[in-house]
Amino acid sequence: MSISARGIQRRFMETRGQDPLFAPVDGANCPTARQGSAADHSLLLQHGLIRIFLKLPAQPKFQISVVHDPYGCAITADPTDGQPIVSVYRRPLPTTNLGFLSTIMFDGRETKQP
Length: 114
Description:
The protein is of the alpha+beta class. It has 2 helices and 3 strands. About 15% of the residues lie in helices and about 15% in strands. The chain has a 3-stranded antiparallel beta sheet with strand order 1-3-2, with no helix packed on it.
């Protein structure tokens, strides 16, 4: 089970971009996107990329540089504390192997340790 760019495009046309898949939180190029705008969802529509935001730790041991940011939201500031938030992209979950996965959110960021 998966999604494809072709299936995403069909869903966008059928729902005029109002399907939850196209919510600004992760289905858009930037969180300020308009839900029904194809241009604001071009990465999802053309490449099947789903954007997520990851907040950097307070004192990271690394530095992230933006090389190319055509949408202007690769690194933004959290409005509550000013910490950097980075846009990254993920692929659909490998549902065929779900029984073997022990993490939540594929990369483990929501997994609670016992």
